[in-house]
Amino acid sequence: MVFFLSQMVNGLTVGAVYALIALGYTMVYGVMRLINFAHGDFFMMGSYLGYTVLVTFLAAVGLPLWLVLLIATAIATLGVALLGVFVERVAYRPLRRSGRLAAVVSALGVSQFLQNAAMLIWGARFQAYPPWAAPDAAWNIGGVSVSLMQLLIIGISLMLMVGLYLFVQRTTAGTAIRATAIDHDTARLMGINVNSVITLIFIIGPALGGIAGVLLGLYYRQIHFTVGWSYGLKAFTAAILGGIGNIPGAMVGGLLLGILEMLGAGYISAAWKDVMVFGILILLLIFRPTGILGERVAEKV
Amino acid sequence: MSLLSLKDVRISHGNVEAIHGISIDVDEGRIVTLLGANGAGKTTTLRAISGLIRPRAGHILLDGQDVTTLPAHELVNRGVAHVPEGRRVFSTLTVAENLKLGAYKYRSQPKRWQATMDRVYKLFPRLEERSSQLAGTLSGGEQQMLAIGRGLMAEPRIILLDEPSLGLAPKLVQEIFRVIREINDSGTTVLLVEQNARMALRISHNAYVLETGKIALSGPAAELRADPRVRKAYLGEN
Amino acid sequence: MSGSRSARLLVSLALLALLSMAQFARAAEPIRIGLQAPITGPWAYEGEMARNSVQIVADEINKAGGLLGRPVEIVLGDDQGQPQQSALVAQRMISEKVVAVVGTYGSSVNDPAAAIYERNKLVNIAYGSTAESLTTHGRKYFFRTCFRDDRQGEFFANFAADTLKAKRIAIIHDNTTFGKGLAEAARRPILAQGKAEVVFYDAITPGERDFTAILGRMGRTNPDVVYFTGYYSEAGLIIRQMRTLGIKAPFVGGNAAVNDEFIKIAGIDIAKGALMTQEPLPTDLDYPESKAFVAEYVRRHGEAPSSPWPVYAADAFKVICAAIEATKSTNSDVLMNYLHNNLKDYPGITGPISFDAVGDREGAIYLAYEVFGEGDFRPRR
Amino acid sequence: MKTERSRMSRMSVSANSAFLMVLAAFLIVFPFFVSDYWIDVCVFWGINVLLGLSLNIIVGEVGLFNMGHTAFYAVGAYTAAILSQRFGINMWVLMLLSGVAAAIAGNVLTAPIMHLRGDYLLMVTVGLNEIIRITLINNPFGLTGGPNGLIVLDQFRVFGRVIQSPIDFYVLVWGCVALLLFALFRLQRSRIGRAWNYVREDAVAAESTGINTRWAKSLAFMIGAGIAGATGTIYATKMMVISPDSFTFAASVSLFAIVILGGTGSIPGVILASGAMMVLPELMRDFAQYRMLFFGLAMVLMMIFRPQGLWPSTRWSTRVKGGDAE
Fold this sequence. Notes:
Chain A is mainly α. Chain A has helices at residues 2-32, 39-58, 65-92, 100-122, 148-170, 172-182, 184-189, 194-220, 227-242, 247-268, 273-287, and strands at 127-128, 138-141, 144-147, 222-223.
C-alpha cells in the first residue's frame, strides 16, 4: 500500500507536467488542427531560459530564494511565450492555407531548428540547475516520501490548469477560443479576429510549457537539448488519450499517463513500460476512437 | 446612396472563377433577395460581402466606403452581420454563450449586450427557455432562431441571411419570414438568399436573380414575381 | 650526334629533377587519418572532446616535423551517433583514402562502420565502443584503445563481493548497447561465483528523468549495493532519487557515469561517497604523457576532459602514428600486422598499450573511484 | 474543364517520364565520375526512395497518416537477419519472406485502428513504432539481440557474384527502384489505385459507390508495409549489422517528411525529396554543428515557399485541405 501510494505521488508529479505540456498541444490542435511537433521544444527552451537566468544573472544578487525563482520562472515563461508567437508568425501562419501536412512538416523543421539552436547556445553537454535553487525539503508520511518540489509541481500545475479551465469557460476571450476551435469562419462572422485568437493560443501554450520546463529543471536539475522530444511525445500521447482538442481531456490524459507509467514501471518492468503505455493508448482508441473525453465529431480534414 | 453595393465583383475558387462580375445595390431599410439555383454563387457572394473570402476584382462598398479588402471581423464592427448557411451554431457552446459571441464587439459593454439579448429573447422566447442548453441539442428550427438571434446581437445595420428557411417545417418557415419582416421593420437592412422564392419575393422590396455567376435579372420584387422566366424557374409555375 | 647525346642527357636530367620534385611534392602531401565521432546529435559533447583531444596530438606531431617527413591531417566524419550515418562516414573515409581511422564512440554505431572498414581492409581503432560483441566477429582491422565491458563487469563482481561484502546486488542498465552490455557482463560473473545474488535487474529509458517507480520497486528488494551501468546524466538522477526515496544502499556507477555532470546533477551532498568502476582517469595517471596531455587540454579549453573517452581517442591516434613511424609505411596490412604483433607497451596517455589477437587492448586496469566532498573523483583506497 | 484536366494529366505524364529519363541518365553516368562514398550516398538515397515510395502508397495514395513506417521496415530487416542467421536461407527468398512478414504485420497491427481519424491514426502509428523498437531492444526470446542488434553475414548473390561493393548495391537498389516504379505506375492506373484515390478524396462517397474502404485502406497498409519490409532486407545486407537504433521514431518522421516535402502522392517528388534529405546534409558537412540547424530551417522555408512540395502530384486534389479560406 505504501509502495502504491508512493507510485501515485510520483505518477501525479510526472502526470501534472505531462498535462501542462499536453494543454499546449491540445489548444493548438483544437484551434488550428495542427500537431505542433515543436511544442516539446518550447518546454525545453523554458528549462534552459530558467537555467540561464538562475545561473548568470541571479546567482550573485542577494535576493531571497523565492523571489529569485519567481523572476526566473517569469522570464523563462515570457521568453518562451514570445518564442511561441514568433514561431507561429514565421513558420505556421504563412502555411495556414496550405494544408495540414505542410504545417506538420514545418513544425518538424522548427523542432529540429530549436533543438540545434539550444545545442549551439548552451552546448551539447548536460546542464544542471544550481543546487541552491531547488528546495530540498521532503517529508515522510507513513512511509510515503513526498518532497516539497513534488508538492509545488502538483500544486502549481493544478492551479494553472484550473485557471486555464476557468479562463476558457468563463471569460469572453475563452469563449472566443472555443468558438474559433469549432468553426473559424463563423467565429470571424462574430467579429472575432482569428489571428489574435491564434496568437493568444501561442502565448498560453508555450507559456505553460515554459513553466513546466522551469519546474522540471528545478526538480530533476538535469537539462539537455533533446529533452523536449521525449516529453513532447509523451504529452502528445496524453492529449490524444484524453481526447485531443479538449482541455479537460489533456489534464485527465496527462495525469493518467503519468500514473500509468509509474505503476507500469513500479509493478511490471521499466524496460517494457512504454510498450504498455502505447498498448493502452491503442486499446483505448480501438474502443473509444476519440479519447476519454473527446467529442464524437466528424473528421474535419 | 446605397448602404451596400457591389461593383463588378469577380470571385474565384482556386483557378476557377465562380462569380463573373456582378453588381448589386442594397438600399438602407430594404429587404433585398438574391435568388438562384444551387451553385449559382449566392453563398459565395455573401461570403465575399462579409469578408470571409476576398474578391479577385471589383469593389464592395459599405456606406460609400470601400470595404473590399477588410477582414471579416472588421466588417462586423462596421455593422455587417452574416447568418451563414446551415446555421453554423457553435454546437458545444450554450445558447447564451452563442448569443454573447454575437455581441463580441460589445464585449466590454455588458449593459449594452444584455439589453440586446433581452430583445432577442423577446423575438425568440424559445431561446430564453433554453439559454443554458448546448446549442447542438436544439432542434433545427431552434438552431435557426439562434443563428439569426446571434446575428442580431451585433446590432447590425445590415444582416445577410443565407437560406434561413432551408430544411424547416412549413410552420417554422412562416415563423422565420415573420421574424425577418420584424427585423426589417425595426430598421435593419436585410440581404436574403433564399430557395423559397415565393415567400422571399413576397416580403422583399428588391430582388436579383443569379445564374452561373452572373446577374440574370433584377428589379423590384413585385416585378420579378410577375416575370415569366422567374415564374417558370423559381416559382414552379408555367 | 654529340648534340643529340647532350640533349638526351639534358632530357634525362630534367626528368630526374621532375621526378625528385614529384617525390618532394608527395613527401609534402599530408598523411590523412580519419576521426569518426558524433559531432552532432545527442552525444555531440563526447564527439567534440574527442576532436579536441585528437587535434592536440596531431598538432604536437606536426610541430615535431610530422610523420615520415609529412604532416598529418585529420579527416573528420560526423556520424551523428546514428548507424546509417556511421556506415556513410565509413565509406567516406575509404573514398578519402585515409590511412586509418580513429572511432567511434557508441558501440552500436561502431558496428556497421567496423564491418565496412573490415571489408575494405582499413585499420580502425575505436575509442569509446566497449561492447564485447565488437571483437567477437573475427575482425582483423578492428582495434580499440578502450577496454571491454566484460573486464569491467568482472571487476565490479569482485569488488562488490569482496570489498563491499555485498550479498544482494541490484543492477540497473539503460537498454543501450553499452549499458546493457556492461550490465550483462557484471551479472554473469556474479551468478557464476555464487558469492552474491542479483536481486534486481531492469532497465530505464534513456532521456527520461523520473526513475522513482523503478527505484521504488528496486528498494523493496533490499539490495546491499546498486550498480547502474548507464550514463552520467541518468546516474546523477538515479542516485538523487534513490536517496530521496530513502534507499541507503551504496551506489556504484559504471565508467560512463564518471563525469563532473554526475556530481552537478546529483548535488555534492548526495554524490559524495558514490562509487564508480573505472579505468584510471587521465588526471590520475602518473605517466608523463598523461600529465602533458591534460595540461595542454586545460590550456586550450579551460578544463580537463570530463570523461575518459576522448583520451582514448587521442591514444588511438597516437598508436596509428606510432605504427606509421615504426613501419615507415601507410599500408593498411602492414599497420594491422604491426599493431597486432609488434606494438608492445607503447607509452600512451592512458598507459602502456598493446593489442591482443582480436584487437582488444591488453591489461585492463580498473579502479574503484569515489566521489569526495570537494566534488572530485579519486581512486578509493 | 474536362479537357483541361486530361490535358493536365497528359502533361504531367510526359513531365514524369521526362523526369525519370533524366534521372535514369544521371544514375547511369554518375558512378563513373565519383568516389565510392558518393555511390554509397546514392545507395542510401535509393533505399530511402524505396521506403518513401512505400510510405507514399499509404500517405499519398490513400491519405492515411502513418508516422511509424520504420516499424514495418524493422520487421522486414529483423525477419531477414533472424532467418538468415538461423537457417541460412537465400537472401532473395528472404527478401520475399521479410516482405510478407512486414505485410502481415502491417495488416494485423493496423486492422483494429483502421477506423481512426487522421491524427489519431498518426499517433497510433507512432505508438506502434515505439512498441516495436522497444520490443527489439528488450530482446524477446533472445531473438533480436537486444540493443546490439544482429549481424548479417550472408549477402545477395547474382550468378555467383556477391553483392558487396558500393557499386553492386547501387545497381541492386536502383534496380529495385525501377521495378517498383514500374509496378507503382501500373498500380496507379488500376482499379485499386483509383479506389485508393476515391477513398482519399471522399471516403463516404467512395463507400457509397461500392468501394470497401476498409479493405482499400488495409490493402494500402499491407502493400506499403510489405515493400518497406523487403527494403529492410536490402538495408540489413548493406549495413551487415542492424540494431534498434536504425528504426527510431525520428527515422519515421524523416520518411514522413520526405513524402510531404516531395509533394504528397507524387513519385518524382519522393525521389527528389529523399535525395535532398540525403544529399543536403552531406553537402553541408562543412558546417559541422550548424548543419542540422540549417536543415530544420530549410524544412520550414521549403514549406512556406512551396507548400505543395517539390514536385506536386496532379492527381492529388488541389482542393485546400483543412486550411481556412480567408
